[in-house]
């Protein structure tokens, strides 16, 4: 008998809570917060943006000068995308914001200094440091859904290193 009384009380409490949740005003989802002021304030003119239907990597700064040639993987969908990120600028790859601080080629191969922020967690930096094209596992992005790695550093003339 106690079980049936407890069960009935629990069922009525859940029904009341569900009705209250449906009747109450729902807050509109907050717009994605800017991960960092210096990364999210740059906005490219509309003619420089890649169409959303073609790619998730959206250019946010002009690509005059050296650029990092990066590849991104969405582990859930299996989609791989190659994109360019200008040094000193930022690009969007899926929900990641990728900022490139430096891209160099030394005797040990190309390396890039990146700052990556996930828009789902704008309060935390997902990656900050150097990535190496010759040994991507040495310093890798540790993310549950996405991988990003360096392929090459390119000069403004398009020469890859």
Structure, described:
The chain has 161 residues and is an alpha+beta fold. The protein has one domain. The strands form 2 sheets. A 5-stranded antiparallel sheet has the order 1-4-5-6-7, with no helix packed on it. It has a 3-stranded antiparallel sheet with strand order 3-2-8, with no helix packed on it. Strand 4 and strand 5 form a beta hairpin. It is globular and about 35 Å long. The N terminus is likely disordered.
What keyword list fits this structure?
disordered N terminus, alpha+beta, single chain, about 160 residues
Q: Averaged pLDDT, please?
A: 73
Tally of extended strands? 8
Report the portion of residues in β strands. Answer: 35-45%
The dominant shape is globular
Sheet with most strands: 5 strands, antiparallel
Overall tally of domains? 1
- If strands are numbered along the chain, what order do they take across the biggest sheet? 1-4-5-6-7
Structural class: alpha+beta
Assign a percent range to the helix content: 10-25%
State the distance separating the first and last CA atoms. Answer: 77 Å
Tally of helical segments: 2
Low-confidence stretches: 2-35, 40-56
The Rg value, from CA coordinates, equals: 22 Å
Order of helices and strands: HHEEEEEEEE
């Amino acid at each position: 008998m106690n079980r049936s009384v407890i069960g009935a009380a629990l069922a009525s409490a859940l029904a009341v809570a569900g009705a209250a949740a449906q009747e109450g005003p729902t807050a509109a989802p907050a717009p994605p917060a800017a991960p960092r002021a210096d990364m999210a304030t740059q906005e490219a003119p509309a003619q420089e943006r890649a169409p959303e239907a073609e790619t998730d990597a959206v250019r946010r700064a002009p690509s005059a000068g050296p650029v990092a040639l990066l590849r991104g993987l969405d582990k859930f969908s299996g989609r791989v995308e190659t994109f360019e990120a200008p040094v000193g600028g930022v690009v969007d790859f899926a929900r990641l914001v990728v900022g490139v601080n430096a891209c160099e080629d030394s005797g040990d191969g190309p390396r890039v200094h990146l700052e990556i922020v996930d828009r789902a967690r704008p309060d935390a930096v997902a990656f900050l440091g150097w990535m190496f094209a010759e040994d991507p596992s040495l310093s890798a992005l540790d993310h549950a859904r996405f991988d990003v790695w360096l392929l090459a550093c390119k000069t403004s003339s398009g020469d890859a290193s």
